[in-house]
Amino acid sequence: QLQLAESGGGLxxxxxxxxxSCAASGFSLADYGIGWFPQAPGQExxxxxxxxxxxxxxxxxxxxxxxxxxxxxxxxxxxTLYLQMDKLKPxxxxxxxxxxxxxxxxxxxxxxxxxxxNIWGRGTQVTVSx
Length: 130
Fold this sequence. Notes:
The protein is mainly β. It has no helices and eleven strands. It has strands at about 5, 10, 20-25, 35-40, 50-55, 55-60, 70-75, 80-85, 95-100, 120, 125-130. It starts with a strand and ends with a strand.
């Protein structure tokens, strides 16, 4: 069974940092396009960062608001995806979903969309509040 399990969410003050983790089981993240989709209350899920590989090259993509403050990475040995989030803002709180797709491996040109996602995690809550 193909599964993703997020962890690392929690309560953080504005300007603080969090590192989200996502452990994959049943498949190798290295064979998929992978990313993070936050969903704020009342809003749809929208990709904030993703990464993939094609022909030995790794590509990463970020939403405009995340380009400086967020960093996506993976630990192949642990089959885990990470999202380092710095300088969090009050508008950042959301449930962050880890995702994987076989549909598109190269992500340098644009973020993945929800329609492309094959596998979803259950999400981890991020709350930004003083």
